[in-house]
Amino acid sequence: MKIAVIGGGINGIMSAWALAKAGHDVELLEKNTLMSQTSSASSKLLHGGLRYLENLEFRLVREGLRERQWWINQAPHLAHPIRIFIPIYKDSRRPSWMYRIGLKFYDILSGSKKLGKTQSFSSSQLLNKCPSLKSDGLKCGFSFVDGQMDDKALGVWAANQCKGNGVNIHENTAVEKVDEGGKLWINGDEKQFDHIINIAGPWAESLLRESKIKSKYELDLVRGSHIVIEGKLSHGYLLEVPHEDRIFFVLPYKGQTLIGTTEVRQEINEPIEVSKHEISYLIKAYNYYFSTQLTTNNIIEKFAGIRPLIKSSSDPTYATREYEIETHGKFTSVFGGKWTTARQLGKKVVRSI
Which of the four CATH numbers 3.40.640.10, 3.30.70.330, 3.50.50.60, 3.40.50.300 does domain 1-44+150-217+320-353 have? Predict the structure, then answer.
């Protein structure tokens, strides 16, 4: 079949690769450049999502935990294991027993794909490992191992695998509209395909609207912002935002320290940029846990991306991270999708057509 894949983020790239390997003639159409939007503005983690266990998303977590190993095996120059510490304080919203149970499930769901052992620490043992943490109120802690990546470079690597499997990639090619009969329009010109895959991430819903195609799914667009500061870390941290159920990460990245992320709803036509409020929010959260205090002068980089979550909760913290595939005639749309599980999503796209 001759298939058009609309969207040059990681999910579009991995779906195009899967379709090409299945023997289809594939064209990948990206309105900007590959990996230039959401997929290159992640927290740089290959993970199942420890927090998603609270939402009982066991299938998604298990899938992510198995897939992180695949990425690390395929591109070890761009992805590697990282140990992440979780300090528990007297005012932590989740007690230590909850983390212990969650990490046990995380290990079980990893199966044979476990990247390293989960560890428990007393407060003194944790401070010995993590001397930059504040000691006041520290009760104990844990550590576990997930994966870390260079998201943009890893996506470009995957795109090169697409090309090697015969995918024709067209950058700076905006699709104006589509129909359910396999037609799409670029600069007013009509092109016919046997099937079209709309996997444009946050812009998938906009394409449906422009094409007057109705869907039973609705996207919740949530901005995630990060800041980068000077200072090299040897490991990462998973931390609760003070007095909130949300968590954030402090991670080593390219010789610096990455802090994020936020969750702020926004419209598709609004600028995708880090707000002053988000900067203040992340600095305040960081300073709550570490002896060395940050100011805005310590920031050397900042970036933001929009996550296309399927609308399922009034609070984006609890919105599902699952993905859905919907087909109308010769036109299929993908809603949601995580970076880590993009390969499995691609396999499901193949089966769906």
Answer: 3.50.50.60
What span, in angstroms and rounded, lies between the C-alpha atoms of 31 and 34? 9
The angle formed by the CA atoms of residues 121, 127 and 133, to the nearest 5 degrees, is: 120
Provide the angle, in degrees to the nearest 10, between the axes of the packed helices 342-352 and 58-74: 110
257/153 Cα distance (integer angstroms): 19
For tokens 């992320």, the residue is: 261
The token duo for 137 is 């109120």
- Give the global pTM: 0.94
> Is-cis flag, bond preceding 317, omega within 30?
no
- In this predicted model, what pLDDT tens digit does every residue of 51-63 receive, in sequence order? 899 888 999 999 9
Q: Give CA 347 to chain center in angstroms.
A: 18
DSSP state of 171: S
- Characterize the bridge pairing of strands 2-6 and 25-29: parallel
Does 313 have pLDDT greater than 70? no
